[in-house]
């Protein structure tokens, strides 16, 4: 049990790196979570999220066209890529789920029937591979792995790094590219540090919280399907998701209904010619004996196959060092070929050398016994063994082994090369054994790398231990380009001042330029195809080489691909069934890719509606993928899934059975009551009755009920109604990494199987989720599952932090401090709302706020509320709320949830706080109607993001009968520009005054002379101008000429002003611009009228200013005369005599203009 205990100890939180926040004093959080649980249960009991299409009984099937039914009864169907059931949901899943949640919540508030179904993906290798590993580990160590000793999992470290490679087992969920396979545990201060590597599957299971005595059950794949889906449902429910759980299912043949659905899909695609059979290259796992597609990989997702032309360069004369090492290993008469792999066969006329990596270990492999042998890297030989290049599949017999340095100087014959006497094998340090065959043919006319290396070899022949004449060979021009002439490589190397083959970055750039120019603009000027374009000649030269026996096709993975079983994959040339994706030019279906591309680009024709991607970046990503994505293997022999209907030995690949499952959601609840399809649903249909013809009818591919159908007409029409109502899918929300496979396949299959009316309407791709500004990583402790997040912060605080994390395709950031702060914010806001209703103290006609506040004790003085007519501050507050409702609604509609949260929560609270302070300073208190209006609107503003909090306010505080989940977004009139302007005036004026006072305090603290002593009693005089200075007349006229369509042309205004006036004029221009573009009537602005009564507003502000300015005993408002020298008091604090004249006004008064008062402090 030593290994089990060491792993468990290393996984304990106390022994893990501290990467996430620890919470103290959780009473407020616990109160909110208790409320959340209450409402989650209430929603489940009331089935509020169960949504159905209008019934056949209420609206007969043929009585209305589906599109008209959807218009009459608006609907919204939203899904996310269903998560794989080999672990619990992590924060990345949660982030995608949150976007789906917010979209569905908003749709409900718009009055749509909003459906959020959730399935469980179980198809493919991961579960089976993990289960099989456990079978082996139980055989090795016992049922509870008690036989696994510490030395089996212990890792020695050197300078903090494991000594030797540790191969991770198939991970149970891919969450990060960080190394999650190593943990450390401290036994004691005296004991040495023990590093524990997760080498075994049972340790992985420990890491995700499975008790050791339960792990053996997971050796049976079915147990994974039984165990993890309920946890997914639990976590999403605890998150507050609006899921219709009736429509859930597991994939694979574990659910016979879904199994029938996938069989129908594959049959129809095959009949349409979208699925084909033939030999093709694919990423292949020799260990698993099958294609290794994206979901089958623990590393290398998204990598495809790169095809090359492999040349055969026959050895004419061995270097002496090589000759001695192959002596007796190659039969007399046996021909050895150096085999470089090239992407540019058309350039082979210009071969001058052949390069090898001097430190790379190569092998000579037997191709035809006694006759033909290939000099290549071991990796290349392994790839060729699965491409029918060697005599026996999977076998590659090495007869000799040499270092690259051993063969330098060898003379070989290069097919097509103008060097008829042969070319020499030379050293090239940048050759990699992990790319191509490890042998590189040199064409210095068109390859910047080859030219730079050749020049270096010529200069340093002695250093490289070669004869100079081997490298110093005339370069043959073979391709003419308009930009770089007929020696492209030489031109670019000299132009970019590349001085060494070690200038890797510049050479990579030059290589890219050379290839693009040569391929798209180049013309052959040498060889059999001189005169033809390179694009035209390339396949012709390749075929000529192959036909002559001088070359053959070779392929390899684009990078390192590791299967879930830990196998390094190769490129296999296999007979296989494949989806005929890809452009027609790349042998794809002639009509399929163009139709998808048209849909993505929104180039729909009549009867077609394009795809909304919410982002130009996302659309461009789809276009790029559709350009390079090619045929895709859709079957395998190992794993879980649905059997191919026409070949029972094969299973449908995991990315090929998960393309149109949104269609299955529409009818799942009618087919079965449980996720495994064991109990029939409302339609009372058996899985054997769901024939291909029935699926065609249900999915509106045919109009007549199949003659041999055994299902009741009512049930068939009910299923057809569900599909034709809920489809098309309104939005699919997924991570951006799925654009390269799942989301593109999703589009392909929808366009193939359904009419344009039912093609998807939108895809929203989000970025990856960081945690606290760092990439999530189990090894650093900076990691969070959805269950952990909701337990730690509660559902609403987690959801708020998810909304705050970001909305674009860029990576988002979940900040725990935001979630933690949300707990306090929502708790205090809830208490305030409760107090305003439960503890409300309504003032009587003869009572004042100030007196009641002084004479009575209240926990919350805001609860002392007015009734009766509303005053200036009430109107200002209600108008601001109306404006914020409008803004928040627009942001929700645009799926900008971070911005919607700002307007609908943060700014809403700020508006309330401003109103509270203003009415408190005025000594009048809050109006009870305003308070209730705010509470109701605040609940509605956050219903999308924080539904539990909103439900509590809606039901418990406001006493509403129905759930807030059924509430509608409030319809409000447009905000009044004059009140908007007055509000901004109040805020800016108050801010300017308090800032000026603060500046004097700062000067005093530094010992500088001040205009007044801010710490002593003082008087504040505010100077208001009723007219503008004369110089502004010309400015207004210039702005008037350049105002059109609600926009001011600032550039034209600037040019129209005298330079001498520009400095003082432009700030005034900006004031006019803001007023005009905010919606204030242009005549009001140009006639030099404020949208509000400035003097009246200043009078309303007196009480608040007196309170906010320190030791302010007097506030007076002075209106100036036309000369800006004298004025008259028009308002003020208690004791100020209205009507008194003020002569010889201070300099601060001179800068006042309407809307921008001057002010002056003096001690009294």
From TrEMBL:
GO terms for biological process: leucyl-tRNA aminoacylation. It is an enzyme of class 6 (ligase). Keywords: Aminoacyl-tRNA synthetase, ATP-binding, Ligase, Nucleotide-binding, Protein biosynthesis. It catalyses: tRNA(Leu) + L-leucine + ATP = L-leucyl-tRNA(Leu) + AMP + diphosphate. Residues 876-994 form the Methionyl/Valyl/Leucyl/Isoleucyl-tRNA synthetase anticodon-binding domain. Residues 720-816 form the Methionyl/Leucyl tRNA synthetase domain. Its EC number is 6.1.1.4. Residues 1-27, 158-180 are annotated as: Disordered. NCBIfam families: leuS_arch. Residues 9-18 have a biased composition (Polar residues). The keyword Ligase applies. Transmembrane segments: none annotated. This is leucine--tRNA ligase. GO terms for molecular function: aminoacyl-tRNA deacylase activity; ATP binding; leucine-tRNA ligase activity. Belongs to the class-I aminoacyl-tRNA synthetase family. Residues 69-134 form the Aminoacyl-tRNA synthetase class Ia domain. It comes from Friedmanniomyces endolithicus. It holds the Pfam family tRNA-synt_1.
């Amino acid at each position: 049990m030593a290994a089990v205990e060491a792993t468990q100890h290393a996984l304990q939180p106390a022994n893990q790196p501290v990467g996430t926040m620890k919470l103290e004093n959780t009473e407020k959080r616990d109160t909110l979570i208790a409320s959340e649980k209450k409402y989650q249960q209430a929603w489940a009991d009331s089935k509020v999220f169960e949504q159905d299409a209008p019934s056949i009984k209420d609206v007969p099937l043929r009585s209305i066209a589906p599109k008209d039914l959807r218009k009459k009864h608006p609907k919204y169907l939203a899904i996310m890529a269903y998560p794989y059931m080999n672990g619990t949901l992590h924060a990345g899943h949660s982030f995608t789920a949150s976007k789906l949640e917010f979209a569905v919540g908003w749709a409900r508030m718009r009055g749509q029937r909003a459906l959020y179904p959730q399935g469980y993906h179980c198809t493919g290798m991961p579960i089976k591979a993990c289960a099989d590993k456990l079978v082996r580990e139980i055989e090795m160590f016992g049922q509870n792995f008690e036989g696994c000793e510490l030395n089996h999992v212990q890792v020695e470290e050197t300078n903090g790094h494991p000594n030797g490679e540790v191969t991770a087992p198939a991970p149970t969920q891919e969450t990060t590219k960080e190394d999650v396979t190593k943990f450390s545990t401290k036994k004691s201060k005296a004991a040495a540090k023990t590093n524990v590597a997760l080498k075994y599957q049972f340790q992985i299971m420990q890491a995700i919280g499975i008790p050791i005595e339960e792990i053996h059950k997971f050796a049976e794949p079915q147990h994974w399907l039984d165990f993890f889906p309920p946890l997914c449902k639990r976590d999403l429910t605890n998150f507050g998701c609006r899921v219709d759980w009736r429509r859930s299912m597991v994939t694979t043949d574990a659910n016979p209904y879904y199994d029938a659905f996938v069989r129908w899909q594959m049959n129809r695609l095959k009949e349409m010619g979208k699925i084909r059979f033939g030999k093709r290259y694919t990423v292949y796992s020799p260990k698993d004996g099958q294609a290794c597609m994206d979901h089958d990989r623990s590393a290398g997702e998204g990598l495809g196959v790169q095809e090359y032309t492999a040349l055969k360069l026959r050895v004419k004369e061995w270097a002496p060092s090589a000759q001695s090492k192959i002596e007796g290993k190659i039969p007399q008469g046996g021909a050895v070929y150096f085999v470089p792999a090239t992407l540019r066969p058309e350039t082979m006329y210009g071969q001058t050398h052949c390069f090898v990596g001097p430190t790379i270990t190569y092998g000579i492999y037997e191709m035809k016994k006694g006759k033909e042998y290939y000099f290549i890297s071991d990796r290349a030989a392994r790839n060729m063994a699965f491409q029918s290049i060697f005599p026996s599949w999977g076998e590659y017999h090495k007869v000799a082994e040499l270092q690259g340095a051993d063969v330098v100087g060898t003379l070989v014959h290069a097919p097509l090369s103008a060097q008829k006497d042969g070319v020499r094998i030379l050293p090239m340090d940048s050759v990699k054994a992990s790319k191509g065959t490890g042998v590189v043919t040199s064409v210095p006319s068109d390859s910047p790398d080859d030219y730079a290396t050749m020049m270096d070899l010529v200069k340093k022949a002695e250093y490289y231990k070669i004869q100079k004449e081997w490298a110093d060979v005339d370069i043959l021009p073979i391709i003419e380009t308009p930009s770089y002439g007929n020696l492209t490589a030489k031109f670019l190397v000299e132009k970019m001042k590349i001085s060494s083959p070690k200038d890797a970055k510049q050479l990579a750039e030059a290589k890219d330029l050379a290839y693009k120019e040569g391929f798209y603009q180049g013309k052959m000027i040498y060889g059999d195809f001189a005169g033809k374009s390179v694009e035209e000649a390339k396949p012709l030269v390749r075929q000529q080489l192959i036909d002559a026996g001088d070359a053959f096709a070779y392929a390899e993975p684009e990078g390192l691909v590791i299967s879930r079983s830990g196998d390094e994959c190769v490129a296999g040339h296999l007979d296989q069934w494949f989806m005929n994706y890809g452009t027609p030019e790349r042998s794809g279906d002639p009509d399929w890719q163009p139709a998808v591309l048209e849909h993505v680009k929104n180039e729909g024709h009549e009867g077609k509606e394009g795809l909304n991607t919410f982002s130009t970046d996302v659309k461009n990503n789809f276009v790029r993928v559709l350009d390079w994505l090619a045929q895709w293997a859709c079957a395998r022999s190992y794993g879980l899934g649905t059997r191919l209907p026409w070949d029972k030995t094969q299973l449908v690949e995991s990315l090929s059975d998960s393309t149109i499952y949104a269609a299955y959601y529409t009818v799942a609840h009618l087919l079965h009551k449980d996720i495994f399809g064991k109990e029939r649903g409302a339609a009372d249909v058996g899985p054997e009755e769901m024939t291909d013809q029935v699926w065609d009818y249900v999915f509106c591919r045919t109009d007549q009920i199949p003659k041999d159908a055994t299902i009741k007409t009512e049930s068939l029409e009910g299923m057809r109604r569900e599909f034709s109502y809920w489809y098309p899918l309104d939005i699919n929300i997924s991570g951006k990494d799925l654009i390269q496979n799942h989301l593109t396949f999703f589009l392909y299959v929808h366009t193939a199987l359904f009419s344009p009316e039912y093609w998807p309407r939108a895809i929203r791709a989000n970025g990856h989720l960081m945690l606290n500004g760092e990439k999530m990583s189990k090894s650093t402790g900076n990691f969070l599952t959805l269950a952990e997040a909701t337990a730690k912060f509660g559902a609403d605080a987690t959801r708020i932090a998810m909304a705050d994390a970001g909305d674009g395709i860029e990576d988002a950031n979940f900040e725990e401090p935001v979630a933690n702060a949300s707990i306090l914010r929502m708790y205090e806001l809830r208490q305030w709302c409760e107090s305003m209703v439960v503890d409300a103290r309504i003032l009587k006609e003869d009572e004042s706020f100030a007196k009641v506040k002084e004479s009575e004790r209240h926990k919350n003085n805001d609860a002392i509320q007015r009734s009766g007519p509303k005053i200036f501050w009430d109107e200002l507050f209600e108008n601001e709320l109306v404006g914020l409702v409008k803004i928040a609604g627009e942001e929700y509609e645009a799926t900008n949830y971070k911005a919607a949260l700002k307007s609908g929560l943060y700014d809403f609270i700020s508006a309330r706080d401003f109103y509270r302070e203003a009415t408190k300073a005025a000594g009048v208190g809050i109006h009870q109607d305003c308070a209730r209006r705010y509470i109701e609107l605040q609940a509605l503003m956050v219903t999308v993001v924080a539904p539990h909090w909103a439900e509590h306010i809606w039901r418990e505080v406001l006493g509403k009968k129905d759930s807030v989940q059924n509430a509608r977004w409030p319809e409000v009139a447009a905000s009044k520009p004059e009140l908007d302007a007055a509000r901004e005036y109040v805020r800016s004026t108050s801010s300017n005054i308090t800032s000026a006072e603060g500046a004097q305090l700062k000067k005093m603290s530094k010992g500088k002379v001040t205009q007044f002593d801010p710490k002593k009693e003082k008087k504040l005089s505010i100077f208001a101008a009723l007219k503008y200075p004369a110089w502004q007349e010309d400015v207004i006229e210039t702005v008037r000429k350049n105002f059109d369509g609600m926009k001011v042309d600032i550039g034209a205004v600037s040019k129209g002003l005298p330079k001498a006036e520009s400095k003082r004029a432009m700030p005034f221009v900006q004031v006019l611009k803001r007023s005009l573009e905010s919606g204030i009537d242009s005549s009001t602005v140009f006639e030099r009228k404020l949208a509000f009564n400035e003097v009246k507003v200043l009078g309303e502000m007196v009480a608040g200013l007196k309170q906010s300015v320190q030791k302010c005993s007097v506030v007076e408002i002075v209106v100036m005369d036309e000369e800006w020298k004298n004025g008259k008091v028009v308002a003020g604090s208690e004791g100020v005599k209205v009507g008194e004249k003020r002569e010889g006004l201070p300099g601060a008064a001179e800068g006042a203009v309407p809307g921008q008062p001057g002010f002056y402090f003096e001690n009294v």
